[in-house]
Amino acid sequence: MAAKMTAPELMEFLATVFPQVKDDFEIEEIGDMRVRVRMKIADRHLRPGGTVSGPSMFALADCAVYMAVLAMIGPQALAVTTNCSMDFMRKPAAETDLIADCRLLKLGRVLAVGDVLIYSEGVEAPVARASMTYSIPPR
Length: 139
Hints:
GO terms for molecular function: acyl-CoA hydrolase activity. By secondary structure, the protein is an alpha+beta fold. It has helices at about 5-15, 55-75; strands spanning about 25-30, 35-40, 45, 50, 80-90, 100-105, 110-120, 130-135.
């Protein structure tokens, strides 16, 4: 399935309906049923122990799936998370951006299921993995 929105179109839409994301996230790539998103790590994302907090990694995974869904279906702001399972596998570096590689495994009329691998930039092994389900509002 070809994307209905480009990265600049999607970021412009998000700046209007979900302005909180513009400071933290940057869409690096949109493809068929996939998106790559960068989280620009700042002090507000860190926890004691010199690592990125779990809630920040959850936000990255959640926003990556949201962006992937919108990229494929077009601007529908009310798609919402209905389920999430997340595994934290390694300690991410505190001064390094995180990269989320998200692919949609299913994109139906009502539900979308996405899989996200999160990496510290420049590190081959993922630091976290998330599986998320989104509910898509009726048109």
